[in-house]
Structures are given as C-alpha cells and as structure tokens.
Amino acid sequence: MTTIPSNLWSIPLIVAIPLLAAIVVNALYDKRAIRYISIISALLTLGISIISPYGYHWFTGHPAFDPTTFTFTFDPGIPGFRLSLEFFFGPMQQIMIVISSLILVFCVIMATSGLTKHQGPYLAMIFLLFASAAIIIMVNDLYHLWIAVEIGSLIVVGVVVGSGTSISHKAALKYAYFSAICGSGLAIALALLLGITGFPNVSDVVRVINIFGVGGMETILYISFGFFILSWMYAGGLAPLHPLKSEVYGASYPHATAVLQAQSKLMLVAIGIIMLRIFGTLPFVKEVMIFLSIITMMLGVVIALLQIDFRWIIAYLIISHSGLVTLGIALGTKEGIIGGIFQAVNDIIYMSVLLFCCEALYYFGGATSTRGSFGIAKKSPWLCAAVLLGAFAASGIPPFNGFQSEIILIQASINAGFPEIAVIILMVSVTTLIALLRAIYRIFLKPPENEVAANAQIPKSITIGTWLFIILTIIIGVYPDIALRFIVPFVEGGFLP
Amino acid sequence: MMELSSSFIAMGYIMVIAITVGAIAALLQKDLIRAAFLSGAESIALAFFFQALLAPDLGLTQAIVGTVLLPGIIILGIFKTRRTEED
Amino acid sequence: MIEVTIQLLGFIAAALLLIIGIAGMVFLDNIIKKIIAFTLLSDGVNILLVAIGYIEGGVVPILLPGMSTVEFTTHAALVFPVGIVLTNIVIGVSTTAILVALAIMLYRRYGTLKASVVLKGERR
Asked: What are the residue ranges spanned by the domains of chain C?
C-alpha cells in the first residue's frame, strides 16, 4: 500500500497464466490432464491476485514526462504525462480479480466434471474470458481497453457456442454481428480521442482535456462519447441491446454464465469509470448514463417476471442488476461510485450462488422449467435452502450483502437529488424477490407431478461452491467494511494514485 | 516536391473512387464468390491508400490479408454452404 | 474552398466505407453478404485511424540513416495508429472466421443463408 512500484511483476502473470493455460488446455486430449492443469492454473491466478502488491505496469517502457521540470522519470508519484500503455493494479482491481478468479476456479471444476463434450477448447475459452475480464479492470489506456472489449466479445461468442444448442448458435451469431459493429465503433471513438488529444493513455487524455480544453471540438468529443456508450451497452448488456446479452446468459451453461456475468460486470465498471473520467465534465453525459441504467433496471426485471424458465429468469435478473451497477457509476458522486462498485462485487457473488444452484438442477434431469412441478425440495433440501438464501441475497434482505450495497445506492441517489431513483431501486429488489420466489416455489416446493431422476448425485464441487459463496454473502452483509476497505480508497483517491 | 504531392492527390482520387466502386459492386453481386473477389480488389486499392498515407507496412499487411486471407475464409464458407444468393 | 489533401481524401474514403459497411450489415439479408459488409466496415475504421495519424509533408516513421532525431520527431507520422490498425486487421480476420464458422453451422441446421429465416425467434 505504501510503495507503488512501476513495472510490477504480478500484473503480467495475472494475464499470462490464463492465456498459457488456454493454449496448453486447447492442445490436450486427456481429460484428467486437462482437469488438473486447468484447476492448478486457476488456483495460481487466485493466489497471485491475493498476494500481489499494488502498482503499475508500463508497456513499451517509456518513462513519464514531467512538464514542470522538462525531465523524464520512472516515478509514478509525479503527475506527468505517462506516454505509455499502462495497467494499474490497485485495491479495487484486487477485489474484483480475486472474486472473478474464485468463480473461475469453481467454474473450471464444474466444467470438467461432466456436461460438456469438447472440454479442451471450451475450457480455453473460459480462461480467455477471465483474461479479458482481468485486462479490462486493470486497464488505463485506450488501446488495451479496446482490445479487451473486442477479444472479450469474441470469446463470449465461443463460450456460448460451447453449449451446443440451436438457440445458443443463434445468440452467438447475433452477438458476433453486434460485436463487429460496436467494436468498430469503439475503435472510431478511440481514434477521435487520439485525434483530439494525441495521447493513448487515459490519464493523459483526461489531463489534456482538463488543462488545455478541447478547443471547439466538443462535437467530436460527443461523437466519441456516443460510440463509447454503444460499446458500453453491448459489452455490459444495457437496455436497448439487452436481448443480445440476455440470450447469451440464458443459452450457455450456468457455470459459464457465472464467469460471463462476472466479466460483463467488470466491463461495465471499467468502461463506466473511464467514461466518467474522460467525459464527466461535459453536460448531459451523466443524464444519458442515468437514463440508460434506469431503463435497463426496469426492463430487465419486468421481462424476468414473464419468463417460464429458471435460467432465463436469472439471465434477465442479471441484466436488471447490471442497471444498478451502472446507476451508481452514472450518478458521478463519490458515494454513488462506491455503491456501484460494491453492488458489482455483491452482484457477482449472489448471482453465482443462484447460477450454481441452477447448475445443480441439471443433475435432476434439467428440471429448470417453471411449468412443471418437480418437488426437488424433498429430494435435496440443502439445495432448496441454498437457492432460497441466494434469492434473499439477490433481493436485498438485511443480513445478506445485497442490502448493504443497495442502501448505499439509495442514499447516494437521494443525496444527488433523485429520490425517484430510490423508489425504482426498491421496486427492482421487491420484483426480484417475487420473480425468484415464484420460480423456486414451482420447481422446488410444489408437490411433484412429473418424474425426475430418482437418486441424482450433485457433485461435491457444486455444493462446496454454493455454500462458500453463501457464506461470503453473509460475511459481506454483516461486515461490509471487508469489501468497502478495498473500494473506498480507489474512489477517494481519485481512481489512481 | 510539389509534383510528388499533386501526383499523390491524383492517385488518392483514383483510389477513393476504386474503393467505393469496389465496395458497392461487391455488395450488389448475386454470385457470392464474385463478391468475395471484388472485396479483395477493394483491399488492393486500400493498400495503395495506406502507402500514400505514410504507412507502408500497413499497406503490405492489408495487401496480403485483404486479398488472400479474408476472401479465402469467405470462399471456404461459400463452398461449405451455397454459391448464389437466394431470393 | 477547402484545400484537398491526401488526409481529407482518407477521411472521405473512411466515411464512404463506414456508411456502405453499416448499410450492408443492416439491410442485406444474406449472411455471407453481411460478413463481406463487415470486412468493408473494418477497412473503413482502419483508414480513419491511419488518416488521423497522417502529417502533411511528413515522413514514414522509420528512422533512416542520415536523419537527425529532431527532424524525425517533428516530421514523422504518428506510430500509434499503425499499431492499432495492425491489431484491428488481425481482429477483423478472426471475427470473420468466427462469423463464417457460425454461418456454416446454422446453414447445416436450417438449409438457408437468409438472416430473416435463420435468426427468427424460437419458442423456448
């Protein structure tokens, strides 16, 4: 915390270990070798992200330029022009990457214990997905931002195809088309920012815009902002483009959806904060972002009420809760940004609980439809308890973590002068509870009419993962400072040291 | 020096026209293989344009990728599916 | 009257390619045609990026013998867009390959390349 070294050793490893694991796993055929190598590399990533110190990594090795003394320096403490592509690993990045790699560990274990046929390439895709998420949360230059968004969306396509149904192929083709259009849009936005300021580094761009102004180029800045919003919408699944991302969530395996939703929440946080830093001083920018978030929250939760399949209910709830994350960032106040990032952390955790329970339902013969009643509570009471606790966490009931972040968001929106938004947040959490409890009652509690597999054995990994994440929700819900002490310094310190 | 830049601009006009005509012609073909080849022709004009815009290395890359690799992938897809566009 | 430079021509070509590419991706029905339109769109982005890095009366950003550093830094075109465009060409190729693979998979299932038939909603 005290020293901030440049060219930190751990940042390349966090990105490179998943990449190497993807390459190795893709070339293997032996199932046990694939299992061990992937679990070891996921655990290695988790360990490195836990023990790593905080600091920068500067690509291309260019030093920073100090404009006051006209000298070059490698000391990141001096607020000079950085001139290079850089990654920053700080407390906020640490908690995000730790939680996503925890999900990666369980996702890898679940993926290798059945369900999929072509395990090597599928696991490679999951590792690349994690790598793109890790890049996007650490990134501080436009070039790597764009690459992470492009690669991330291509990999999403690959993961969705991995589940192998016709719905997933269609969802993949649609998502690939839109990623082609929106990725090009992000490249144009980057080109326009580069043309206005001449720097690829986000800190430099912000400094140039704040110090020298944009010199009558506000129109071009707004066009660039529009393309940024477009890529934000499709990378995170915000309102007008939400069918793309919700089909992606619903059509892939639940364990893959756990990593997918973690990745898209990391994208929302990272791109949102970069947008806030670059365009936050322009008029109408925050209003547009708030409008998008409100539409996303309400549409997602209303469509979730209409669904008849547990997987698709969760898919639309993920969309709706992404709106909560972006709302906090869009408010632009310190309290709001803290609430938004905290909501992202909590959201990743409790949605993973629900998704792991959904994965367990596959071992009861795929009983995820709310049309039939299967009476699974009698066969597996612990699974029923887990999914109920997950539903309570998702709808913000006090002892769980969803409550803590939603209360911060409600306070932030009231302090920012939007008491209406607080009402909408309450409505979203109540509707979430209704949608989830309806499905849980039909699937788990109603007396059985349909036959399901009698002695289904849920793998131990799913049980352990579910209960670990439930314990996490309760711990963070009772002691929110455990997560907040990572997030608050990031926001209070102006995002970067 | 003056001669050189004016000849560059004349080349630029020709390239803009070639790119536009190639792109529109590629999208209007009924025969998909012909469309793929026409998009390759558009890529050659684009490669010359990169040369004029002081990026000769990109010109080389674009010439190889745009004329061989991309039409190759698309033609592979056409052979696996069907050659003409349905009504 | 605006003086016509090669940079302006680059912007014009970029705008034309972007419009043609977007229109092709949105309005054409054949999936392979949509993919060809995407390659045009990606070309448009590339030429926009390179045209932003262009400097009037500049030199190619390669340090040749006999060229002083000051002369090089004041006259060379921007290098950074070249890096982005190289990446974009590679990403364009991989996106095209993925799209073609998905098109083949969907053709095997539905027997047609019409996007209006293939991408129609399905009861789940």
From this structure: 6-118
